[in-house]
Structure formats: C-alpha cells, structure tokens
Amino acid sequence: RGVYWIGATFDPQPTGTLVSPNGKTVRGVGALVKIRTHANAVGRPFIYLDRMRLKTGKIAFGDFLQLGGAARAGDWGDWPDVYRCRMIADPLYGWTGYRGGSFSKYVSHSDFTKFEMGGVRDSYAAMIDVTWGYQGEYVLPSWAAGKRPYKGPDGYGTAQYWDYVGRVVSDRSIGAKDSPKAFFLARGSDEVAAGNHITHAFHTRGKGVFVVPLGAKGSAASAIHPGGGAYAPQDFGTHLLWRNPGGHPFVTGRLENGARRSVPRMVSESEVGFRHRVTDRAQLTTAAARGCGR
C-alpha cells in the first residue's frame, strides 16, 4: 500500500549505452528508481521519498524516478499520492531520435521524475534543487493510466510545489537537447482545452518555486512546455503566470524566473541522507513528519 524511502545517495554505474546525436557513444541507465503501488491497495496508497542526493559523474542519460500505481483509471481509491522532499540532483541529458546502442529508443528522454508506472492522485514536492538536461518534472497523466488524469470523488489530481528550483542545462559535446524543460505541464494546449490535465500548483508561501533558464538568462518560459497555444505561460519578466480554462485550473500560483531574481537556497547537502536506524512505526512517522510534513 505504501512505500517510505528516507535517505539515499546515488552515484550509479551505467547499465548500457546510446549513440548521441553527434555520434558519440555515451553511458547511462534506463531508470534508476521504479516504484509502483498495488492495483488493489487497501486504504489510500502512497509513495514517500525524502532526503535523496543524485550524483551523475558516471552516467549521461536516464530517468531518476519512475513512480505510479497499478490501479486502472476509474479505480480512483487505489491511486497513490506521491511525496518528494529534500532532494538535490546533478544533471542527466537527453535528446530525440534513436541512433543505436544497447538500449531501445526513448531511453534518451531523460526525466528527473516521471509517472511512468501508472496513475497518481496528488503529488507534493518541497525543498528540491534539481539541475536537468531534458525533462525535469514530467508528472502529467501517464500512458500507463491511458493518459487520463485522476478524477475521483474529491476532484481532479494535482501536482503541488513549494521551495523548488529547476535549473536547465545542456551538453553540446554530446549533442544533447538545447532547449530542456524544467516543467512539462501538458502535452499541448489542446490537451488542456479538452480537460485531460491535472492542476499544477506553484505555492508562493515559503521561498517560492523557481526556474533557471538555460545559461541563467532570458525568459523562464523557454524552460516550460507547452510553450505555445492558448495555455502557454504569460511572461512578466520576473515571473510566469497562466490562463486557466473554464473547468478545473491548469496552473495556479506563479513561477519565478531565476535569471531575473535571486534564487534562495532550497535545500543543503547536510539535509540529504539519513544516518539513523528506524526500528518501529513511531520512529518512522517522526522521521517523515520532519520532512515534507514539517
């Protein structure tokens, strides 16, 4: 029903190779962490991840977190909530097109977090600093759930953020994507118009939610998808806002431009990792309460 994972430092060895757009053979992983809750979970299932550090000195591509639940669309009570808290990530890179290697196509589409394992009800992310070179937050409804958003008796699903910074980078030496996306909010504005979207909530309480565009200059909108259509972000220089459809909201709150505003520290290296042995439920819930729930 539920998964707790508190404390981890990753510096993974590669498990395969791909040929990058400029013909270089680069090493990476398909996905580092895969977690799926049961299709018939008892009670409200969840995935709770806290105090994690991703280092990428040995690999160039791959997904970090693939999460979700095995329940079908319509079995809303068995869709999990996902909590992510206190994470720091070094970059992985991505590109489109397959040019060979030991992996199949699409593995080069590196994501920091992706709901690849099935449907998710609500997700919450706080105190996170991630640098990424393809798609950072890809938490929209997954193909594994028929690309349908959560729509239970309590409304539509949400992805909520506090004290978060997404920094986009590229690696031209391997021909990586030169316009990475920190937030992939929907596949297109037509998906939003059709109501097949979740609500992304950027909370201003606390330090705020920031994007640092490529080269730490220019518009934060360059690091957002969709970048066009009726539901593209409205750029006010220091921040982005969104239009919302007549049904459930697409994006609430504001996304700050880290190239135009000073970015506060969201999480320090001393806050990741967990050096304590947890031996009973009381210690576990105390550790969790000091994280995302504090």
What does this protein look like?
- It is built from two helices and 20 strands.
- The two termini are 23 Å apart.
- The strands form three sheets. Strands 1, 4, 6, 8, 12, 14, 15, 17, 18, 19 and 20 form an eleven-stranded mixed sheet that branches.
- It is mostly beta strands and 294 residues long.
- Strand 2 and strand 3 form a beta hairpin.
- 5% of the residues lie in helices and 38% in strands.
Extended strand count: 20
The overall average pLDDT, rounded, is: 94
What class, by secondary structure content?
A: mainly beta
Low-confidence stretches: none
In terms of DSSP E residues, the strand content is 35-45%
Which range best describes the helical content: under 10%, 10-25%, 25-40%, 40-55%, 55-70% or over 70%? under 10%
**Continuous helix count:** 2
Shape descriptor reads globular
The span between the termini is 23 Å
Largest sheet: 11 strands, mixed
Output the helix-strand order.
EEEEEEEEEEEEEHEEEEEEEH
Rg, alpha carbons: 18 Å
